[in-house]
Amino acid sequence: MRKQLLILSVLLVSMTVFGQKNELKTAEKAIRANNFSAAMDAINQAEGMIANADQKTKAKFYYLRGKALYQNGANSADLQKVGAAFNELIDYEKQTNKAKYTNEVAGIINDLINKLASTASADYSTALGTKTSEDYDKAAKEFNAVYALSPRDTSYLDNAALVYFFAKDYDNSIKSYEKLLELNYTGISTVYTATNKASGKVETYNDKKARDLQVKLGLAENPKTVQKESRRESIFKYLAQNYAAKKMNDKALEILTNGRKEFPKSYSLLIDEANVYYSKGNDAKFKEKLEEAIEINPTEPTLYYNVGVMNMNQGKTEEAIANFKKAIELKPDYADAYNNVGAAIIDETKPIIDEMNKSLSDFDKYDKLQAQQMEIYKKALPYYEKAYELNKSSLSTVQTLKGLYENLEMTEKTKEMQAVYDKLKQ
User: Fold this and answer.
1) Handedness of CA 188, 194, 195, 197 (dihedral sign)
2) pLDDT digits (tens, 9 = 90+) for 341-360
3) What is the tally of structural domains in the chain?
């Protein structure tokens, strides 16, 4: 009985091997006839039997699957699946140290990469001009397909992640950036370029040896070597911005916190962190982060301006005015800062007006309070006039300036500003 079972076992193995080879022959014939659907049917039939196949049969299986998916380069081919299949074959032949199909497949992959990378770059240039999500999305998918064909070229995944972000496809951008972090991608690399003498275009080479050979042969000139800086900080930045765009502010803060652990002096990540807190309505943390940013970049006028706005909102008028004046010191044509100095000064009239409303029957007291009010208006007036001088299209500045002139009984100025106001409102 045991002997019969052994014979049956051997028979089953023989039938499995026969089945594998039969299905692979069917797939091979179908590929030659350009019947890729039939080829994939045969490949799928063989897949369940391939686990215990010998090296030669396995390699052929991987090769035929890649060729069936490739479809002789047809536009309908799914390049991500093509890349995965061909790269699986290359890895398998490298592992078994028997490279029967690797050179052919590597050639196909290189041709696809060069063609698709050029198309992706051209489509990205088009998207930069049109600024449409559709054009950005097209280029992003192409960059992603190049990465699928050559997973070692992670810069293409980086390109895809960024262009997906521009396309507002936040889910795919997040997926790509998280993959880059998982791979510990930095983007640091050395780029070798030279100008092709025939075309006059700058070309990039895989290594210095290849570039120098072209120069030595007289086919290229002006060789240059460029060291690319780390992209990791930008990965944290754009990943967080993707989450923020999806209103996932807590996740965005988590990413920014991790990023700032690696880049504690990053001004860019700190500003993004401040903006997320602002989106969450946490003005205290927003202001705190802006003040931290001032320590890193003390010559940026918008930081002082925004801290000034927060101080105004908190009723800290003197601090607000000091911040706005610092912004003006750094940027003398900062119209909004001049406007807000005036607004902060006018805020000083609030308690006076409250007291005036309580003293309507006490004429002497009312007149004294009103005189104080007018003095504050006179103090604010030059800042609004400067703001108007720098930006004559601001309706709110013109409206406030008109009111000041009217309160200060400056009749001609009031008429002049009324005319400007009427024109802006048209």
Assistant:
1) negative
2) 999 999 999 999 999 999 88
3) 3
